[in-house]
Structure prediction request, 395 residues.
Amino acid sequence: TDMSISYTLSLSLSLCSDHQQALAERVSLSSMLAKSQADLPARRMKDSYIEVHLPLGSEPQLREKYLTYHNTVRFGRILEDLDSIAVLISYSHTHNPALPRSPLSIVTALVDKIDMRQHIIYPDCDIKFTGHVTWVGKTSIEAKMHMSQVGTYRPVLDATFVMVARDPENKRAAFVNPLTPEGPEEKKLFQEGETNKSRRVELSTASLLKVAPTDEERKIVHSLFLNTLDSKTVSFRSRVLPPTSVWMEDAKLKGLEICHPQERNIFNRIFGGFLMRKAYELGWANACSYGGCRPNLVAVDDILFQKPVDIGSLLLLSSQVCYTEGKHIQVRVHSEVFDPLTRQHNTTNVFHFTFASDSDVPNIVPKTYGGEGHHHFTGCFSIDPDISMLRLNWL
Ligand SMILES: CCCCCC(=O)SCCNC(=O)CCNC(=O)[C@H](O)C(C)(C)COP(=O)(O)OP(=O)(O)OC[C@H]1O[C@@H](n2cnc3c(N)ncnc32)[C@H](O)[C@@H]1OP(=O)(O)O
Prediction:
């Protein structure tokens, strides 16, 4: 439609040659920020609607970047593209034609959900992404995206991201245009956005570190515990691994990334999409070694971007199988920046991926209440309502 704008995926946003100068120029944009949300004109959902075409089928030289060894598409690359598209959607929504450039810094705050409708992505077929803003708060934007493939454009996945607008220096929150839904379908989407907002607030306060587990969660944990008690000694310390099970501590995989300038965004921070790709690949490798076969991704939930990652950081990634059920493996990847000079650790992201193996996988069993004792891995066991309950309902 004429409302849709097609962009190519090589984002000009990331092609700033002199970053220091670009950052200095950005500061001067502060005076263009709106003083209140009411000062900004309301937008319709179709104002931010975009379509992006990824010609994997028709341009073989592009394919290499997306190809796995097993002739499927690298999902980590798709995560990067979704992140870029969510940014584009947010800039389309907030676009002010009277200004030479946007004073807003848009950052990814949360990947709420990615549902896979098809498990294999073909590297020799073109991909189409569509998406638009579905809800806005005062400074946050919910964007939904859909990806489809092949001549008939079969649906591949649906994704929901939350983006947050900040001032040009990425220091304070900044207002975004209001959204006016039109017609029953848009009103429904907007209403769902409202519900999502309350759920997100609830979830963010429901961490195990703050709230006790529910009755149902307690029962699961207790039965896991009873199953591992040594009947001869009946001691807390002496524990026996049940048949076809693996201790949590034996289902980890770790990695390190040095955050080079190549991966920075226009605000001189590491791209959310890059972080997601790295975390996804580590999580996949862990699920692969746990299940003993190449697993398919089933869902991505609650990727929280708590803190930006600076260029030059050492990024420590730890992945842990935290829940299993039948063929399904749930992996949590925790990332933190480590400053080798001050020896300080800071959590930047938490990722949740659910994979399906070819056949049933061993049960994952925690030895301790916290999952296991590593101090950078607090609350990794799946009694965290963010993780196991969601999955229990879902599977
Ligand atoms: C080209 C550039 C590409 C850039 C894209 C990227 O890759 S960005 C790189 C990856 N992402 C990052 O580095 C972001 C790291 N995280 C952060 O910097 C911060 O956590 C944050 C700015 C997102 C949020 O910080 P704060 O929570 O302190 O901000 P504040 O309290 O002012 O809230 C601002 C708005 O965000 C919403 N918000 C904050 N966290 C949220 C969450 N988990 N889920 C939903 N919404 C959330 C709030 O409701 C509020 O919206 P309302 O005001 O509507 O109520």
In short: The radius of gyration is 22 Å.
